Amino acid sequence: MLSSIAEATGASEAALRLLVSVLIAYPIVIFYRLFLHKNSNITRNETNLIFTVCGILICLFNYGYEVYHSLLSVTFTYIIINLLYKSKYLVPVSFIFHISYLLIGYYKTSTENYDICWTMCHCVMVLHLIGLTYDVSDSVKKPEVLGITDSRPYKIPSLVEVFGFAYFPPTVIIGPQFSFKRYYEFVDHQYDVGQQNFTFGLKRFLTGVLYLSVYQLLFMFIVPDSFFMTTEFDNKNLIYKLLLVGLWGRASLYKYISCWILSEGAAICAGLAFVSRDEKTGEENWSGCSNIKLSVFENTYKFGDYVNSFNVQTNLWVLNYVYKRLKFLNNRSISHISALMFLAVWHGFHDGYYITFFLEFIIIHFEKEIEPMFKKNPKFVEFNKQLWVQVIIWIILKLYTFVIAGYCLIPFVFLSFYKWWAIYKKLYFFGFIVIFPMPIYAQIIKKVMNIVFPYEKPAADGVAASSKMDQNNTKHDKVN
Questions:
Q1: Are residues 405 and 303 in contact, defined by beta-carbon separation less than 8 angstroms?
Q2: What are the φ/ψ torsions at residue 248 (nearest 5 degrees)?
Q3: What interhelical angle do 13-23 and 44-63 show, nearest 10?
Q4: Hey, which of 42, 96, 415, 468 would disulfide with 350, CB 3.0 to 4.6 Å?
Q5: Any residues with CB less than 8 A from the CB of 43 and at least 6 apart, and which?
């Protein structure tokens, strides 16, 4: 049956099986919420056991007997937590074991295509388990020493709690990431103050279905991956090709977004994603497991917004457990490169991943360098208040993000060198020509801005202090 549906929709059977695995979490959590959640006879351990069994069954349906990989990893995590609880070796041992295990899995299973097998689900669980050992290790430290959001567990988790956390049905296949502390509070009924979980969960489910439908329509009828390999695409002019790449990139991102939203909807229905409730208005916030900021993503006008709004929980994980842990290096660029390198390695060995993250690094740094030139220049700010200027800039930035995002995504989707290189060749390496010289562009833009919109920068603290005309005692920031 699945094979017939897959053939009719143009999707692979593995992809369809994954989608079913995400959707099957809904009846599980709804049954739990309606019949088990308030049952005083159901203990916390029994709740964890129920989630564990359901999660393992979902994994069995999705990739069969190879579920043993995750069973082994979860058991190993529980053992080292208990053996190395107060040791400085807990995190290194966990990190090395899980990443090595995942990379060996990639080596044994990867092909030249995107592989939907046990490693795809396992990479999500790897972050779950490494994050857990980080949090347990942090539990012996003071929050002010950490310098990060305190997600330390209240106690050393039991075996059934570790399994329940790892195999929680809505997130066991594709995530999103969340801390063990959040999971413990959820099982402990600390989120019961939220009453609108089904309402918000249904909204996310419908939103996920909408995005999945749009993706399927675009993929089937307008921009399938295979179209880039046809002579029809070869014969199009460059502008048409670039716009089509932008549209294809959008469709490809919708594939991920739809699955994340569907998974989030199930987590909301279960009650895991609760954040807060306004006692005056009764308004509730259920964004605790949100992996995509749709309003930011759909209204973006810079590449950085794509990064900030996309795969939010994974990026937050990398921020807390990789980027901020490298603070001792005292170099943000090295920390940023290391975080991106970790993400690339975490995805696998395909060179396409590394190219995409490398392009991202260049673009993000370019935007961070030139954005203040415009925002802090009072003459340009005044010039930008004109409607016609705003419209032109908006169109330029929209086209820039639309096309560049699709261009950067090509290696990430096609993975193998000979595939993405062939497509870039057909685009005359336009993106490389635009992106690689961005550090040079920044210097040129700076000089042009100084000529067209010249202004004197505020004086440094020492100079400004000599002026006694400031009756409001305004504090001036030192100009670096």
A1: yes
A2: -60, -40
A3: 160
A4: 415
A5: none
Is the CB of residue 242 less than 8 Å from the CB of residue 427?
yes
d(CA 425, CA 446): 32
Tokens describing residue 364: 């993000």
How does DSSP classify residue 329? G
Nearest CA among 175, 68, 187 for reference residue 127: 175
Q: At what angle do helices 118-138 and 159-166 cross, to 10 degrees?
A: 130
Whole-prediction pTM value?
0.90
331-385 per-position pLDDT tens digit = 888 999 999 999 999 999 999 999 999 999 999 999 988 888 888 889 899 999 9
Pairing of strands 276-277, 284-285: antiparallel
Beta bridge partners of 234: none
Amino acid letter at 441? Y
First to last CA, the chain: 65
Inter-CA distances, 29 with 123, 170, 180, 263, 307, Å: 23, 8, 18, 11, 31
Q: Which residues contact 459 (CB under 8 A, 6 or more apart)?
A: 476, 479
126 half-sphere exposure, CB direction, 13 A CA radius: 24
- C-beta separation of 201 from 387 below 8 A: no
Q: How far is CA 43 from CA 10, 29, 214, in A?
A: 45, 16, 42
**Positions marked active-site:** 311, 347
CB 377 within 8 A of CB 453: yes
Count Cβ neighbours within 10 Å for each residue of 330-360 and write b for 16 or more, e otherwise: eeeeebbebbbebbbbbbbebebbbbbbbbb
